[in-house]
Amino acid sequence: LLGNTCINASVSCMAESTCSLPSILQQQQHHHSNSLPNDFDFLCIDVDGPDYWLWYDLLKNNYRPKVVCIEFNPTMPHNIIYIQPRNDFIRHGSSLTAFVELAELHNYVLVETTMFNAFFVDEILYQTYLKEEVPDNTIESLHEITMGTHLYQLYDGTIKLSGCKKMLWHRLPIDEEDVQVLPPEKRDFPFAPTSSDFTHTVSNGGTVSSSSGVAAVTSIDPKVEELEKKMRELAVDMRPYCSTQSQNETKGEIDNQELKNKCAAELYEQLQTNGFAYIKGTGIAPYLCKDALQATNLFLNDADESVRRSCLTKDRARRGYSPMCTENFASLIGDDGPNDLVRKFRVGPVINKDQKKIEAEKEKGLDEEVTEIEKKLSCLLRPNVWPTKDVWDEDSVAYFRTSIEAFYKESCRVSRGVVHAMCDGLLQANNENTDNIDLLRSSIDALLKSLMMSNNNEETDQIISSRDTSDTSILTLLGYQKGSRHRQHGKQIRPLVAPHTDVGVVTLLLFDQGDSAKLQRIDREAENQWIDVALPRIQNECDPVFVINIGDCLSELSHGMLPSTIHRVIPKIIHGGGKKGKKKKNMTDLTTTAITPRNCLALFVGLEPTQMLTLPSSSPTIEGAERITYEEWRKRRIAQAAKVLREKSNEKEEIKA
């Protein structure tokens, strides 16, 4: 009825075969009146091996499909052009770069990729319809290798593996010991000085030297040290609000209140200016911060991808593992920026037994058995998911979970003190503003009531107890690595996480010194300017410094007096001389030496789902102000951003038309 012609035939990649794809199509044209035009619309090739040669033969026989979808081998790096042998019985697959090279020779343009498939369009179609949508069509921009296996050598001859450590199609692990060239007893650095060569001396500059001229600098750059000192001095001391010991045990009631007033005023001043602030004196031990960051690196960077994917959930925006390029924070402000090039893992409050039972029923598909309790269960409360010893070694499983749970517990405690100080500072600064102080106080009272509900001192041995109500704070682990967006194209900066604001109440942030990413906030005083946000190193003898920033919820509750600020994460581009010789199209000679992953811990503070909020923006009086639950507010906030995004998309379509 539709005029389709179905052909059931075995296809060969051998050019002279009567079963080659061009031969099959030509035979079809000879025997059927409904012949296939040479410029047909869509070609899809997925034969697990000789895909390259099937497309190659079609192009050589003057077939020019408008759109091509073809499978490539996702483990091959972009700097390798690998074309599998032309043989029907070999199953290697070809590299994406090989397909791009073939496409460019025949005037096709790469416009999109998935993990295994590449999409090409005829260059005329690209120039006419897609150039604005896909301005950067380089392979580095359009594809991030997530399934590659990398090999490197240590000085003593040890071979190390990173990336994917299993055979994808055989489901077998790749053991580092199986790829070693030298046995353990023969691994040694051949140019190492003997022990008798060393005469250890320690100079005033903090270096250890030897008679062989080897020197290891252990001192830090004075400029970096001075910058870290300034950041620590700038940080607001939160001990009056976050101390784990009652201040009244060591100070009088008046002194305690004076310290709180000073802390609240300093915090409010920083936050009102930029929406960001540094804090210290949280009571979180340095070793706890180090453990949590090391555990983050262990899971997001060192572990095999199969370990991370064992923690995938249906709702990964709230719990479990979220792979690279599967989320888009730009959508939170109604923008259509690039997907987030960062791995994420989320944990939240532990839910009670009834909620766990409901989740189990839903997983089994027993919808008819879901109780009335399930209908009332907030979408913000979900069970946590952790890697198990079935996919990861037992020590790593235990270390990862205990380190992250301990940090989550402490950061939740600190966040309550931080929000309390913010609110006190807000009320102090606006105490003389009689027009809206009552409405402001009503908004803040609801906020503090929700957060303090979870501040039960008897719960010191648990993350969050099994109770009917809980805040919805989520700890997100973020792992940034050197990737395609570190290669700068002209003056264009391709963010790892696009500009956005945070939806919740406040965000508490800690990150290590990895050099593959940096956080920036928008400069409120200069148009289109960004300011770097750094943190000092975590040292055993120093109080850890954290960054906090205002979320949209607190911004609205404070009627904008505590503003949420747009921020982003960008690659840390290092300027330097590029390789000599022919440059790729649109490429500059900028290079990057960023090699160390950056690991971040971000606590997004949320409220109890049913907590009623009073929104000052809706009315100047308490009586006229809108009251809405926190969960309803979140849904509406996200829906508004989605609406803006749709409107922008429609405007673009109208302009094209």
Key words describing this protein structure:
four-stranded mixed β-sheet; alpha+beta; 657 residues; eight-stranded mixed β-sheet; globular; single chain
Task: Report on the architecture of this protein.
By secondary structure, this protein is α+β, with helices and mostly antiparallel strands. The strands form seven sheets. An eight-stranded mixed sheet has the order 12-13-21-18-23-16-15-14, sandwiched between helices. Strands 1-2-4-3 form a four-stranded mixed sheet. Strands 17-22-19-20 form a four-stranded antiparallel sheet, with no helix packed on it. β3 and β4 form a beta hairpin. α8 (253-274) crosses α13, α9 (286-302) crosses α13 and α13 (394-429) packs antiparallel against α14. Mean pLDDT is 79; it is low at 195-218, 246-251, 454-469 and 575-594.
Short précis:
The chain is an alpha+beta fold. The chain contains 16 helices and 25 strands. It is globular and about 95 Å long.
